[in-house]
Every structure is written in C-alpha cells, then in structure tokens.
Write a structure and sequence with these properties.
This protein has 400 residues and is of the alpha+beta class. It is built from 12 helices and 18 strands.
C-alpha cells in the first residue's frame, strides 16, 4: 500500500459537521470576538463604553457586548438581552514528519482540562479525519478516549510520513555521496569518471527533491474551502494547527565551494551545484492576503503552533531550514484571525497557551452603517478609548 506523506491538501478537506448553521437575517449584524490582554493576563473589567470599532476607517456604533469565559456568559450588555451561541467547535490539524511523544500531553490536557459537554472536536491526521461524537463522550471515559486518540495520531503519522522520510534518507545518502566524490575532502576520487559520477548524483538529488516537493503540494482551493465550510458553523471555531519544523540535507558551504572550484570548467556541473545548494529557495504558491481575508471572514480563531526541533548533526551534511513557506503564510493567517503563533519544542506548552488565550473573550456586535452587499472585504479595527492594552480580533469580513 502506498504511504502518503502528511499533506495540507488532506488537512484542509471540506468539513461536514452536524452543528447549527448560521441563517440569513434581514438586518446585518457583524460579530467580532475580541481578546484584550495586559501582558499575558486577560482583562475582564471592560464595558461597552471602553471600546471603539471602525469599519473601513468609519466609526461604528457597537450594539452589544458579551463577556464569555469557558462557554459561560459572564456579562451581557445588549439592549435586547439576547444570548449568543457560546458552543465551541475545536479542530486539531497535524503536519509532522515523526511522532512527538509530548503530543500525548496535549491530548491528555485536551480531554482532562478543555473539552466540555457541548464541545465538538475534529482531529485531522495525515491520513484521516476523526470527529468525536457526543455519544462517545457519554459512553467512554475521557481517559479511554484520550488513549484511543493518541494511538490514532501516532499510527497515522508514522504511516502518512513513510514516503517523505524515505525520500529524506535518500537525500542524505546522495549528499554524502556527492561529498565523498570531492578529492579535496581527502576521499579517494575516481579521476577516470570525468565528472560523470557527480553529475549523475546531482541529477538524482534534484529528482528526489522534486518528488519530496510534490508530496508537500498545498492546494489553496482546499484551504479556502475549509474556511468557507467553517463560516457556516455558528459558535466559536477554534483551530490548532500543529506544524513540525522541516530541514533539507545539503552540502556544507565549504564543500560546495571546493566542488565549484574543482569543476569550474564544467558548467553543466557547476550550474547544478549552484541551483541546488546556493540559489535554491522554496517558493510558496499561496496568496497570503486571500487566505487571511478568507479565515478572518469565517470568524475562525486559528492558532499556529510551530513545533521547533534542532537539526541533525551529520558530518559533511548541512541540514538547512525548509519551513519558511508554510511558516510565513500561516503566521500571518493566524494573526489575521486574532489567534496566536507559538514556537516551542514542547507542543504541550504552545497548546496550553493557545487554549488559555481562547477561553476568555468579549463578543462585540454591530450593524454596519451604509451597508452594501458588494462582495468587498471590509476591514475591522477595534480600539480602546483610554486603555493601553493589547487587542486581538479578526481583520474583517466579506460583505456578501
């Protein structure tokens, strides 16, 4: 059976969840979840009069303010005294090359400290999507459910990353072979090959690298579809995206320079060396602004949890950072939703920080003045009149 490396394409497949959906109403009312912090501490003593809200630079009248903690409505400043939907939909997405044992702490904390009776949980592994049913919560203990979830994540990660890790091992072997073909490195060299040996190795390295890149194809349409599906779900939608730092095996700069000098009269070889080890840069095919607006419009709270790790120490091989494309995109997307970005070698720490940040928030509502359903993105900016605190909220919405 062909093993499939963890892919963003799979992670962001459309979601179908049996949850209440939003319905169109005659009066447009925009909801803006807002977190206000003093350092790392949530500020819970603000009133509706402390806030100012702007849409495309125009001051709006805030209609309602709700203070929500752990799905509980703590304060209601609404003329109609209506109550918002405080149910939570949790989504956990994993992109990893190997299973990190500390993820077990994440799952234990999730079941023991986070999940409430009315919460919904969807977990997406490299291979499958799992939705925790309310029946499962009623019929099984949290300890049993946690152990089952750990086993699924570990199994799917090992199976899903099989091809990727196989290609990674091949890249390391090829780099070692290219290094050993360098006579200046003190290793026996076959001068009769006329450079054919290294040229073949470079070509195989390029082909293997291309195969690895194909496993990482990111389908922007699938990501946008994911955001659109979640837009139709009411309540709080919290996404935890666990992403493990990646590296690519390359020649050490010293060896690269030596090979360029050795084969300076063979442009077909030096061109390959420069393209692969000096000028190579992974380009992202994603449109950052498009994704930022889609996730903000869907009122998703995206938390990007970057699982850092140290590069392997291999003689003659340089493990070069290869996470910049996904990292840069989802750092900005998370910020556009009001979510956090956490960089840590311990994913449990990042997860706890993200959970704590999402559990308490103000929900502001307003009806835009001079509203026009023109399909344009409307920028939202929330400010405090006389307080110097940090404010986190989504960037805006599409008027459609």
């Amino acid at each position: 059976m062909k093993k499939i490396y963890i892919s963003l394409l799979l992670l962001f497949l459309p979601i179908f969840i049996s949850a209440q959906e939003q319905h169109e109403v005659s009066v447009i009312e925009i909801e803006v979840p807002v977190r206000v912090t003093n350092g790392d501490i949530f500020v819970d003593n603000l009133t509706i009069d402390d806030f100012e809200l702007y849409e495309n630079g125009q001051l709006q009248k805030i209609k309602s303010l709700y203070l929500i903690k752990n799905t509980n409505l703590q304060r209601n400043e609404s003329p109609s005294w209506t109550s918002p939907n405080t149910e939570r939909q949790f989504f956990m997405l994993f992109q990893m090359q190997d299973f990190i044992p500390r993820l077990n702490e994440v799952i234990d904390y999730l079941f023991n400290e986070v999940l409430k009776e009315k919460d919904t949980l969807t977990i997406m592994t490299p291979l499958k999507r799992y939705t925790l049913s309310k029946q499962a919560l009623q019929t099984k203990s949290k300890e049993v459910l946690a152990e089952e979830m750990k086993g699924l994540i570990r199994k799917d990660t090992l199976m899903g990353s099989g091809d990727y890790n196989s290609l990674m091992r091949e890249l390391k072997r090829l780099v070692a072979s290219i290094s050993s073909s360098n006579p200046m490195a003190g290793i026996e060299h076959d001068s009769t090959s006329g450079g054919f040996g290294i040229e073949l190795l470079l070509q195989r390295y390029k082909q293997t690298l291309q195969k690895m890149e194909e496993l990482r194809i990111v389908d922007e349409k699938k990501i946008l579809s994911f955001a659109q599906q979640l837009k139709r779900i009411s309540g709080q939608k919290v996404v935890f995206f666990f992403y493990q730092r990646e590296f690519r095996p390359e020649l050490e700069p010293r060896i690269t320079n030596q090979l360029l000098s050795l084969y300076q009269d063979k442009s077909e070889i030096t061109d390959h060396i420069q393209d692969l080890f000096q000028m190579y840069h992974r380009q992202s095919a994603l449109h950052i602004n498009r994704l930022k607006m889609a996730f903000a419009d869907s009122s998703i709270l995206l938390n990007f949890l970057f699982m850092n790790k140290d590069p392997e120490n291999i003689t003659g091989i340089r493990m070069n950072e290869q996470s910049e494309d996904v990292f840069s995109v989802f750092t900005e997307v998370a910020t556009s939703t009001g979510g956090i970005v956490d960089i840590s070698q311990n994913p449990a720490v990042g997860f706890k920080n993200a959970v704590n940040a999402s559990e308490s928030y103000y929900l502001l509502t307003y009806t835009p003045s001079n509203y026009q359903s023109d399909g344009q993105f409307k920028e939202i900016r929330v400010m405090l009149k006389a307080k110097d605190y940090k404010i986190f909220h989504r960037d805006g919405y599409f008027a459609n």
